Amino acid sequence: MTKTTKDSCENLTLHLPRLTAADRERLFSHKPFTIWLTGLSGAGKSTLAFSMEKLLVDSGKPAFVLDGDNVRHGLCKGLGFSPEDRSENIRRIAEVARMMNEAGVIVLVACISPCRLQREQAKLTIGEENFIEVYLNTPLSVCESLDPKGLYRKARAGLIPEFTGISAVYEEPVAPSLVIDTSQKSISECLQEVMGKAESWWLKNSDRHR
Fold it and tell me: N or C: at which end does the chain have fewer Cβ atoms within 10 angstroms?
């Protein structure tokens, strides 16, 4: 992984935009935010994120999913699963989410993001006021029994090192905005809960800016 040096940063100039966040809010008639879905592999993060993306777009709101697997095919290609690479992976996703929020897009991040500190850093990057953390606390036994990608089987066989939940730790969020056990509810019920949280966020932020 290429690291940015102090000298290279000194030769760069930060160009400030001519449009403000308020300008874009007036254009799109909404205040953008990021919903960060975290949880074990197989908990339903991607399913929920893409379902919500469609619901939002169908209602006329710009939305986009940053899926953990998808970004590793491009934006984060070449990163492994060491603590350092995981941290860089989350940093890149958070930076993209922040820029997309600035452009007026609602972002849905579906990423295991197992480390509490990394999620807190993502929140700081995106902005605490724009960050909604949703923890899918589906039990490991359920995720492993489903195993849609066959990853748990490979991890148990020692074929995937540092696999979250098996050979690497998942640190549960301390105070997430919402907690859902997807094994106890249908996708429709889960989607309704997340949309309800998003609507509460909209109301709160609309009142704040009146």
Answer: C
Q: Which residue has the tokens 């605490």?
A: 128
Ranges of each domain in the chain: 21-197
**What are the pLDDT digits (tens) for 185-197?**
999 999 999 999 9
- The residues assigned a catalytic role are 113
> What are the pLDDT digits (tens) for 36-77?
999 999 999 999 999 999 999 999 999 999 999 999 998 898
Find the length of the chain.
210
> 35 Cβ partners below 8 Å, 6+ apart?
49, 52, 106, 107, 108, 109, 132, 134, 194, 197, 198
Indicate whether this model's pTM tops 0.85: yes
